[in-house]
Amino acid sequence: MKSWQRWTTGWVAGGLLVALAMRILGQPLMVIGNLLFMVGLALVLFGLICVLAKGHMFTGWRHKRKKGQEPLPGEKVDVRHVASVKNSPIVVNGGARFGLLAGAIYIVVGVILTLF
């Protein structure tokens, strides 16, 4: 089992245990479902940020120098290098997989609990 799979299993099991404890303490299912839904949205947002972090979004940006100023160190950027980096495949690392999968499970469980 990979690390992100262990983390996902642990977080989902922990969240369901917290939901069960809240139910035993007398919280309505609507509150538990809303809480799981919000945590799921936060985890999905975390997963999307992890995907975008590997996207090389700012590759090739330059700072323009003012007239009469010396050239900046990174001002000359090879166009072919920028194109090859930007056209590279999307990288979905372990953190992104954890966030997206755990968040999706929490959202589904939250919606199911809200409907009851």
Description:
The protein has 116 residues and is mainly alpha-helical. The protein has one domain (3-57, 78-115). 66% of the residues lie in helices and 0% in strands. The chain has four helices and no strands. It is elongated. It starts with a helix and ends with a helix. This is DUF3899 domain-containing protein. Keywords: Membrane, Transmembrane, Transmembrane helix.
Q: Summarize this, please?
A:
The chain has 116 residues and is mostly helical. Helices cover 66% and strands 0% of the residues. The protein is elongated, with a radius of gyration of 22 Å.
H and E order: HHHH
- Tell me the strand percentage band: under 5%
Count of spatially separate domains: 1
What about the largest sheet? none
Count the beta strands: 0
Helix content: 55-70%
Apparent shape: elongated
**Integer average pLDDT:** 83
Structural class: mainly alpha
Terminal Cα span: 34 Å
Low-confidence stretches: none
Which radius of gyration do the C-alpha atoms yield? 22 Å
Task: Give the helix tally.
Answer: 4
InterPro entries: DUF3899 (IPR025007)
Organism: Levilactobacillus parabrevis ATCC 53295
Pfam family, one: DUF3899
Protein name: DUF3899 domain-containing protein
Write the layout of secondary structure elements.
Elements: H1 3-24, H2 29-53, H3 79-86, H4 94-115
Tags for this model:
116 residues; mainly alpha; 4 helices; 0% strand; DUF3899 domain-containing protein; transmembrane helix; membrane; transmembrane
